[in-house]
Amino acid sequence: MLDALAQAAARRVDVRVILPAVSDLPVLKLAALHRVRQWLHAGIRVFEYRPAMFHSKYAVVDDDRCTIGTFNYNSASVGLANEVNLLVHEPTFVSRVASMFEEDLAASGEVTVRSMARRSNLARGLDAIANAGVGFVDFVWGPR
User: Fold this and answer.
1) Taking the model in full, what pTM does it have?
2) With contact defined as beta carbons under 8 Å apart, do 19 and 47 qualify?
3) Residue 16's domain is classified under what CATH number?
4) How far apart are CA 107 and CA 101, in angstroms?
5) Which is the most buried residue in 21, 36, 129, 136, by most CB within 10 A?
6) In Å, what is the CA distance from 8 to each residue of 2, 13, 55, 57, 63?
7) Distance between CA 16 and CA 5 in Å, rounded?
């Protein structure tokens, strides 16, 4: 997925991802922060939803299709849970989902290379450890 998003960003597509500012699984939040640096350098814009826990899993593509469902980004979630997403190509529905995304984006703050650089060495180390742990779980329980 990262490769596809990075390739789109390289083509000057406006790729924006909203992550939760607060997570019910702090280790996943730290692992995501470790990966955000790579996303930013690939041209992907990253935002954190601030008002509350953000558990939505949806995407809008080219304003003419969207996907919505339970799919998480990590492999273990796919391997351990019955994750499913629906791809919708119906203009009225897609328009509403696009509006929801803009509303969520307005309640989010942008994560930048500069803001990530301000994280302490300890925080960066914890991000890396969390990422390694999530990577191990993904390897062991993810789909083959």
Assistant:
1) 0.88
2) yes
3) 3.30.870.10
4) 10
5) 36
6) 10, 5, 24, 19, 15
7) 9
